[in-house]
Amino acid sequence: MSAALATFRGNMRTVRGALPNWVWGLILIALAILYPYITDNIDLPILGGHDDLLDASIQTLGYIIMALGLNIVVGMAGLLDLGYVAFYAIGAFVIGWLGSQHFPDINHGKGIHFLVQSESGISHQPIPGIHINFFLVIFIAAAFTAIWGAILGAPTLRLRGDYLAIVTLAFGEIVPRVFENSTSGFFGIGSIDFSNGRQGITPIDKINLPWTTDPFRYPLELKPAYWVALGMVFFTIFINRRLRDSRLGRAWIAVREDEVAAAAMGVNLVRTKLMAYAIGAAFGGFAGVFLGTYNNTVNVDQFEFGFSVFILCMVIIGGMGNLSGVIVGAIFLSLVNRDLLPELNTYPEKIGLNFDVTSINFGIFGFLLLVMMVLRPEGLIPSTRRKLELHEAELENEEIAGAMEPQLYEVRHE
Amino acid sequence: MEAASIPEQQPEPEARTPRRSAGNYIWDNILPVLLAVALLYFLAHDFDRTFDDLKTGLSNGTIWALIALGYTLVYGIIELINFAHGEVFMIGSFVSVSLWQLLGLTDTTAAVTGILCIIAVLPAAMLACGSLNVMIERVAYRPLRNAPKLAPLITAIGMSFILQNVGLLWRPTPDSAPDLIRSQVDYFQVFNTGIEHSDVFAVVVTVPMLVALLWFVGRTKYGKAMRATAQDMDAARLMGIDVDRTISLTFLLGGMLAGAAGVIYALYNGTIQFNQGFTAGLIAFTAAVMGGIGNLKGAVVGGLIIGVIQAISDDYAQPVWTNAIVFAILIMVMVFRPQGLFGEETREG
After folding, report:
1. Residues in B 29-68 with any Cβ partner in A closer than 8 A
2. Residues 170-189, chain A, touching B (beta carbon < 8 A)
3. What is the mean pLDDT of chain B?
4. A366 lies in some domain
């Protein structure tokens, strides 16, 4: 078995060595761009129809952005964030506010428009509400969520790993509740309806290229939306790669491995951690805007704790700290969630049980988390460095025969 | 951690006690004082209404206290937030209601039969939850005891989701527990406030358990082993304490208390559902942090305080804000007073 695996790996290496890395990169990029045409021509019953598959792929691209964002916080800086959904929520509400008819009375009912179609095509009346071009809103939302990420990060800097997790979890629970209940001002202050309660804000503006007034026509035509999402993913990957190799990225890894040593080497802990939170959060907002407009609704029901864990699961299963691992994890979990679980649905009946497998999807993710963490904490495609860290305890334990327990993140700071 | 901290503990013990100035003293006590002032304000504002809230809060708080003790016990000994604890509590409710339904109890069952069945079911539910908690530790935490902190935390979340979905399969919709104690009937009156059967029941079940727990941890050999393991796992092992068994025992105790809380919750609230554990867990964790995590009496007091805060918030603000308020308190306590309201020295460095 292991011999076969070794041969397989050897073969893979030869294939990979046949072309330089950048050629493989180009091939992957080309495949990703041509993917909608590929899906037009394949017909697998398990993956659903062509449009179904493309639709799921677009959602997956959104999840990839979020997983990469969370990877900055959890994978690179080693800070467990259980409230990532809060940033998704904030980003989605930004497009809800800046790209819908949610504030109908603004500017005396004429609305505010920026680089978008400003009149109804049929009646030539101005469209009420704030409408700002999608490509601007993604960056506005990213900046806004980054600020919120820093606000969340600032007070938690003194906390250790597990306290941090709880504080972020509480934050992730508060934010949707605040949106849900802010139907007449925030905390009863003012009287503006920020969220339309449980109904949520809908419809949301479609994506609009700045130089045209003609919005994309998804869900009728999915390809343009796919390419926009793909562009956003490429942008995210690019930023992540540059960050990983930057001074800041190295500081994150240093903080993750040993806070005290990093501080002693002159790494500014406060700044480094805040940047991790802010940048990680920014990608949450970035993806939130896209998923908001693509799903055509911003609704508090989307922002449950389970979603935070869903994204966390992607990061962990793929391999914390490794970009390609996280991307694979995101694709894998989306596939499991959308295709594999409904497929498994026939099995409970066969063994005489009657339940819906899709309803316990989070139980299955929980199981995956558990198994993954116990058997292979470094993930499916680990980064070499992370793998070493996660197994360091075992290695050292062997050396000193279990007399002491080195704990990687156990840092005393008075 | 212990190994790393040995050189630091060598200096004189006085070096570790913080200097106390007047400003420090005020700052240290500002949160309890603020809470007391707020309570007095509400009492002065409308005595009867607030007293009713106080009653509801305290009896509800006993449930949070029982769950919080589980968090605090486990955190005290292995410094791990047992995320699945709230779910253990939920399973406790489910087990007890299932047993009552199995016994054929309904709302109209005679009081004596009802009480006898409660007395029979309570230990069963406690035992079930205790063993479940021990099993969780065996499966999810023990293999990772030497791994980085992140790892057991993540398995804890995984475990919590698994149990929650077990609950979902067990009872997909909210279910009602048989009203065995006639919970809404007034027992007696204090200041125009009816003390209901449910309030009395909650207190009557909880108090002996708390006393028993304090006795167990403080006075028995096993309790001593637990305290020793909490202080220094390696030293405890050198002293011949079976650390693994002590940790299992801690999980057993925590799970039993959560099971008892589940039984009380089912009778007190009348409805149970699969996602009750998540919120209850967070609330109880807030209580545990508030009392100073690792501090048993603190957890009880924290639970009662959270109960009262909830009741007052339900009454004076809107119930929809209550959870947000509790979680905001959680964040504030963690950020400003990570050692808890009462300034106990804990191991939070």
Report:
1. none
2. 170-171, 173-174, 177-178, 180-181, 187
3. 81
4. yes
What does the angle CA B314 – CA B320 – CA B322 come to, to the nearest 5 degrees?
A: 50
Arithmetic mean of pLDDT, B19-41: 70
For residue A410, give the nearest of B81, B149, B338 by CB distance: B149
**CATH number of the domain residue A57 falls in:** 1.10.3470
Domain-located, residue A410: no
Mean pLDDT of B282-290: 88
Q: Which domain holds residue A302?
A: 46-345+357-400
In this structure, is residue A35 part of a structural domain? no
User: Does the CB of B232 have a partner CB in chain A at under 8 Å?
Assistant: no
Residue of B nearest to A364 (CA): B162
Q: What is the distance between the terminal CA atoms of chain B, rounded to a whole angstrom?
A: 10
H helices within A118-268, ranges in order?
134-156, 161-181, 223-244, 247-257, 259-264
Interface residue A390 vs chain B (CB under 8 A): yes
Q: Domain count for chain A, please give it.
A: 1
> CB-based contacts of A46: which residues, under 8 Å, 6+ apart?
A339, A343
**Residue A228 in this model has a pLDDT that exceeds 50:** yes
Question: Quick check: B234 contacting A, CB < 8 Å?
Answer: yes
Q: Is a pLDDT exceeding 90 seen at residue A144?
A: yes
Residue B346 has pLDDT above 60, yes or no: no
pLDDT: which is higher, A140 or A359: A140
Residues from chain A that touch B90, judged by Cβ atoms under 8 A, are none
The neighbouring-strand residues paired with B190 are B193
Q: Is residue A338 part of a domain?
A: yes
Domain boundaries, chain B: 68-274
B158 to chain A: nearest residue by CA? A366
ipTM: 0.79
- pTM of the predicted protein model: 0.83
Report, as an integer, the average pLDDT of B30-57: 80
